[in-house]
Structures are given as structure tokens and as C-alpha cells.
């Protein structure tokens, strides 16, 4: 058992007969009344996100998990196939377990969170950012840069990302996997 002082991003807890991962948390100490922790929880079985508030000192049931490094091999419909980088054991995971499946490129390394009680994969942590090549982008219109103008661009995995007007086909861009947004152009 853990308490609210142990809450951190990425902690897996058992709550309402399900396993949740804490995405965000905020410790609040109002001027009047007891302190509490406001959290955003993501269900590792359904993928639903819910907001919850725990009072300070509340006992929470944490789940023992291990993280293993896996390499993404290929996608087949809704099944995504991964290989353990040390044992070469292959596993297949459903698309809804992944946070950003449309940004996953073959050969990309990810961290898979595994429940130690039953060796079931719970979720897949993507790297903080990925570098992908733009396969389609409409040309930017000259003189249309008074503000932060963006245009949709398609990357090599098929995802669509809003990018600045100066990005062209063939450019490599860095994308934040948490938000799916453009970060910067990458020069090689």
C-alpha cells in the first residue's frame, strides 16, 4: 500500500477494480480545509482517461510493474508486433494499448510496462519525441506568414501533423509523442 505522498507520473495503481496509470497530478493545499491530490488517470485496459481527487493521506493500492525495452517490428491490422531487445521474444499488442500508434515507425524502440503478478503487458511508453520524414505537404504560400501559420503535413507513418509553412516534402521533423505536435525541423 502507498499513500498520496507517493503519487508520481507513471505510477500504476489499482482503483475501481481496474489498473490505472497516473498521467498528471497536482498536490493542492488550499488556505482553508485539508490538502488533496488532483490526478488524471488512464485506464490500462480500456484507455479511458478520468479525473479523480484523493484526499491527503489516502491509501492507494499500487501495482508492481517492470519496464522492458522492446523494438517495434510491424503492424498487422490492430495488432502491433514487438520484439524484446535482449531475449528476442516477440509479443503482439492491441492498437488501443499504445499512446500514439500513428507515430510508431518500424525499428523504433519503446518501453513496455509489464505487470509482475501475471506478466501481462499493461502499456507502451513511446520515446519523448520521434523523427519522421514528411511524405506530403502542400507548398506554403509566400506572404502568408504574418502569424504562426501552419499547414497539415503527412509523415512516413501516415499520421497528419500541423507544421509551419516552410516545411516541405522530404524534410525530417521532430514530433512530440505526448501531444502529436511539431517541435522542430531536423538537419542531417
TrEMBL record:
**Primary location group:** cytoplasm
Report the family membership.
Answer: Belongs to the elongation factor P family.
| UniProt subcellular location | Cytoplasm
Q: Which residues form the Elongation factor P C-terminal domain?
A: 130-185
Q: Which gene encodes it?
A: efp
User: What is this protein's function per UniProt?
Assistant: Involved in peptide bond synthesis. Stimulates efficient translation and peptide-bond synthesis on native or reconstituted 70S ribosomes in vitro. Probably functions indirectly by altering the affinity of the ribosome for aminoacyl-tRNA, thus increasing their reactivity as acceptors for peptidyl transferase.
PROSITE patterns, per database record: EFP (PS01275)
Instruction: Indicate whether 4Fe-4S appears among the record's keywords.
Output: no
Q: What is this protein called?
A: Elongation factor P
Q: Which UniProt keywords apply?
A: Cytoplasm, Elongation factor, Protein biosynthesis
Instruction: Report the Gene3D superfamilies cross-referenced here.
Output: 2.30.30.30, Nucleic acid-binding proteins
Q: Which HAMAP family match?
A: EF_P
Positions in coiled-coil regions: none
Q: State a single Pfam family of this protein.
A: EFP_N
Q: Does the keyword Cytoplasm apply?
A: yes
GO terms, molecular function: translation elongation factor activity
All copies of domain Translation elongation factor P/YeiP central, residue ranges: 67-122
**Metabolic or biological pathway, per its Swiss-Prot or TrEMBL entry:** Protein biosynthesis; polypeptide chain elongation
